[in-house]
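Morning, I've got a small favour to ask if you have a moment. I'm working through a protein record and want to make sense of it properly. The fold is given in discrete form, as structure tokens running alongside the sequence. Can you walk me through what the tokens say about the fold? Thanks so much in advance, here it is:
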Amino acid sequence: MNHEQKTNQEKEQSPMWAALESDAYGYQELQRGETRTGIVVEKTPDRLVVDIGAKTEGVVTSQDLEKLGPEAVARIKVGDEVTVYVLKTDMANGEILLSLSQARSQQDWSRANELLTSGEIVEAKVIGQNKGGLIAQFGQLQAFIPRSHIVNAGQGDSLAHMVGQTIPIKVIEVDRRQRRLIASERVAWKEWRKGQKERLLDQLREGATVKGRVTSITDFGAFVDLGGADGLIHVSELSWDRNALPKDVLKVGQEVEVYVLNVDRDRNRIGLSMKRLRADPWSDLEQRFQTGQLVRGTITNLAKFGAFARIDEGVEGLIHISELTNDRSVTNPGDVVREGEVYTLKVLKVDMPNKRVSLSLKQAPQEGEPAAETAPVEAAPEAASTPVAEPAPAESEA
């Protein structure tokens, strides 16, 4: 029997060694690759010493701490309970080599699997990008988000502007053996918006005033994001000016204040209005426009019987063909005026019940003509001091 065999035999027969090997003193046999919970008993710039209930204390080196990052290391204090991963149990100096970063990595893989099962949506910070997609920080791990799973990623467009942003993601694939963690922003965003829309439909009330951002513009109106759900401002609800086009009134990305017209919870639709937040221009028209008053009007439409002119937002008047010119041989209004042109016009009549205004071009002085020949006979007091009333400018943006 050699010396080493004799020593081992003596240890096996020794009551002291038997006690040390038992749980009576709290010692447990360590296995490389296992995860343990311990208490930080010493912290220096170069290492952490952790009591994990073994015969000797374990050490976390500075190289491992660097992987955590300075902020995470700064939060660790003596006396804290930490989870560590056992790297080596038989170092030359008798210490046990531990890793905090790998322990947290193990926890992150477990967390990723939980999210894959639950479908929960979490936020992650984008730390890099390449041609294939984005790289997001997921604890100590890195999750890859393919370009096809990014919400606003056109083919070939650079994704550099997204680095540094925090985005919602949903874990869609976990392969710990291949160290493969795949996530989707598109799926997360779609599911988040679905839930948000359901909440908004429950919360929104008709008659409420809310703020939103224009997401798209069509010929029939504009869609506005109210914070997770889109509502539609129909073209008829954009402005009191019935000739206003959505593209001329709003821009994509513009922030607007809107009035909630209706909430259809069965069809998941939200109707909005902008013009309802402004007074009906016809409500006080008689106070602003009187018979005989001279105004400036923009030709908006031509008809066989005359031309229509906008004299204020949402207010159009008719210039009958007989009031276009003194030349009775003219039978086509287009021979006298054109759409988009601005003229000085005379108010002949304001019909409030029927919301009609009659105008005259031939009775109003035009630039270069003597005013005496066409001066209003019975101008309103306001017109006496101000011969030409400039209409209020149409509000094209909220």
